[in-house]
Amino acid sequence: MTAQPQPLTLLRLFTGTAADESTDLYKNEAANPAGAVQIEMVDGSSSANRRLGTGSDMTVAVDHSTSKASFPLKARAFST
Hints:
The chain is an all-beta fold. The chain has strands spanning about 10-15, 25, 35-40, 55-65, 70, 75-80.
């Protein structure tokens, strides 16, 4: 009987400068810094659409057959 591989997961910690408006937004530090950026999970789970502000984390499974992990995210710009 072949032993099944143990499930592997990968943890990603999101850090950055929070926007003045909300800690769920990241500050735009470009030369013309109007606006902010929001990052959300889009993995189809109960955590989908969870905002990933600075200090948030996200854990995903590693595919044993490819040794790859995928972080399904979406980002959008906010005008401030």
